[in-house]
Design brief:
The protein has about 130 residues and is mostly helical. The protein has two domains: about 5-65, no CATH class; about 75-125, no CATH class. It contains seven helices and two strands. Helix 1 crosses helix 3 and helix 4 (about 75-85) packs antiparallel against helix 5 (about 90-105). The chain is elongated, with a radius of gyration of 19 Å. It starts with about 30 loop residues before the first helix and ends with a helix.
Length: about 130
C-alpha cells in the first residue's frame, strides 16, 4: 500500500471531498479505492469502504465487484481460453494487447503467466 493510504484522516475544511485526482486502472487497488470513494456515501474508514451487506471484503477490487461496479476477470479468461484453440500466435498477441489496453483486467500478470506459452509459441521455433 502507498504511504498516503495508511491512515484515514478527516478533512477539516469541509464536509465532503473537494477533488480526487485521476487514477489509472493500471494502478490496481488505488484505482478501485478511487472508484469506491466516488460511490460509497458517508464512509469514515477503509473498512467501511470494503463492507457490503455485513461482509468485509479483503480488497477494494472485490468490494467493487460485489457492488456490481466491475466484472471479474472471468470474461477475459474465457475469451483467451477460446482464442488459444482458434487463433494464431500473432492474433493472440493482438488480442492480449487489446484486453490490456481496453479491457483493464485487474490481474494482467496472471493472464500473462497463464497464456504466455501460447502467445509466444512462434518465438520458440525462431530460437
Amino acid at each position: 500500500m502507498h504511504q498516503w493510504m495508511k491512515k484515514w484522516t478527516i478533512w477539516h475544511r469541509g464536509c465532503c471531498v473537494g477533488h480526487l485526482y485521476f487514477v489509472s486502472p493500471s494502478i490496481g487497488e488505488c484505482y478501485f479505492l478511487h472508484t469506491l470513494l466516488t460511490k460509497v456515501k458517508g464512509a469514515v474508514s477503509f473498512e467501511i469502504l470494503r463492507t457490503f451487506n455485513g461482509v468485509v471484503h479483503d480488497t477494494f477490487k472485490s468490494m467493487c465487484i460485489a457492488l456490481g461496479l466491475y466484472d471479474s476477470d472471468d470474461k477475459w479468461n474465457v475469451c483467451l481460453e477460446e482464442a488459444v484453440n482458434m487463433q494464431t500466435c500473432v492474433q493472440l498477441r493482438s488480442l492480449f494487447v487489446t484486453i490490456l489496453a481496453f479491457g483493464v483486467p485487474s490481474e494482467p500478470c496472471m493472464f500473462w503467466d497463464k497464456y504466455k506459452e501460447h502467445i509466444c509459441d512462434d518465438y520458440k521455433v525462431a530460437l
